[in-house]
Amino acid sequence: MIKQAISKKSVRIALTFAFCAFAVILFMMFSGVKAEAKTFVIKTPKQMRNINWKNKGFGPGTYKLGNDMTLTDDLGSDEHPTVLLTKGKFVIDFNGHTLQNSGEQYPVFSLRGANVTFKDSKPKNNISVRSYGAGAIDMTKGSVLIKNGYYMGRSDGTNNPVGLYVGGGKCVVNGGTFDGEFVGASTAGGKLYINNGTFTTPYFFALMRFGGGTIKISKGTFINSKSSYSSPSMALGSYNNTGNTYSFSSWLAAGASFSPSVQTIYWNGTNTAPSYYPTNNVGTNNIGYYSQPYLYAGSYTGGNVYGPTSVKVTGSPNPPKTKITKLSARSKALAVKWKKKSSKTTGYQIQYSTSSKFKKAKILTVKGKKKSSARISKLKGGKKYYLRVRTYRKFNGTKFYSKWSKKKSKKTN
């Protein structure tokens, strides 16, 4: 009787498991979403909109675009042409394709609390995200890491979209291009850390701070491609309703510098300008009607023409490389010493493996730049191990690593 009861219970469990697996397969088949190594391949606008729309979509995960798509296609009556991400961890891979909306004043991505990574695993100089009526990426909460890609905001004739808008949360830019009709990137709150990338606009500012938040730039290029007979081109600007100005130097991360020089001009009807600008060509119809101060970098090309402007910020966020100074054998352990680094260093990492090519390697993290030694325990006795060391640095919203040192080997006792 006991064996029979156990057998029936096992059958019920097996049937339940089989039914659940079959249901998952049916869902994937009919939804058109394929799971490839825990990555969902998105092929339709509806699938993209429903990643986390009103928390009723597929949920957190890694999503890869399967083709170009427009979010306004096949739009339901209760939907907006926006990918709304409110909570959870997401990785969005544009995979060499373009995601856009068309003729709608909505951002392509609206981030309200999620942890999101944007990247393009197959960059082809194509536009990754394009918005025609608002920002390509608009965030007010959560955290965002942008590795690469091309993000464009273009006007539909009714407003001035941006490539990247940060109104709250934390956004780390480690690469990519941000192209806005009005401004490449702007903040009204939160934290914007720029470690690399290109910010550009054909109209006003490559980077503009509207009146809130924190901007820290360690490296990047800021371009205004405008050419005018009456007004200076502006690559970097700040504005807020209180009339305060911001020094561009205050936006720089530690150790960074920029060129050419940036000057502050108050456009208050007096048309004051630097001496190298012909003041009679600063027209009130173009800029003079603004009563608030703007901070900008301009270039004068001669012939009464203000040419395009490019401002570059240079810095080196990467920590210095170190080396192993001594490696000693212990009983089922190894003692390692390295050269201490006093600048641009947060700590150290030791990688060790029985393989000279570091297959299936493990890493020991040592916090503190003043540390110069560590003991690696719980190893196999009488076994040869290979080690190498590198420094790491927590800087500007992310973690940077040096190159690995030369490897050393030692057999444990």
Protein architecture, described:
The chain has 413 residues and is mostly beta strands. It has two domains: 50-313, no CATH class; 324-411, Immunoglobulins (Immunoglobulin-like, Sandwich), CATH 2.60.40. The chain is 10% helix and 40% strand. It is built from three helices and 35 strands. The strands form six sheets. Strands 1, 2, 3, 5, 6, 8, 10, 12, 13, 15, 16, 18, 19 and 21 form a 14-stranded mixed β-sheet that branches. A nine-stranded mixed β-sheet has the order 4-7-9-11-14-17-20-27-22, with no helix packed on it. The protein starts with a helix and ends with a strand.
Overall helicity: under 10%
**Whole-number total of structural domains:** 2
Low-pLDDT parts are 1-6, 24-37, 265-294
Tell me the fraction of residues in β-strands, as a range: 35-45%
Reconstruct the topology from this structure.
Layout: H1 2-31, E1 34-36, E2 39-42, H2 45-49, E3 61-65, E4 69-70, E5 83-85, E6 89-93, E7 99-100, E8 109-119, E9 129-131, E10 137-146, E11 150-153, E12 162-166, E13 170-173, E14 177-180, E15 183-187, E16 191-194, E17 198-201, E18 205-209, E19 214-217, E20 220-224, E21 236-238, E22 257-259, E23 263-265, H3 284-288, E24 294-296, E25 299-302, E26 305-307, E27 309-314, E28 324-330, E29 333-338, E30 347-353, E31 362-367, E32 373-376, E33 384-395, E34 398-401, E35 408-411
Parallel strand pairs: 2-3, 3-6, 4-7, 5-8, 6-8, 7-9, 8-10, 9-11, 10-12, 10-13, 11-14, 12-15, 13-16, 14-17, 15-18, 16-19, 17-20, 18-21
Antiparallel strand pairs: 1-2, 20-27, 22-27, 23-24, 25-26, 28-29, 29-32, 30-31, 30-33, 33-34, 33-35
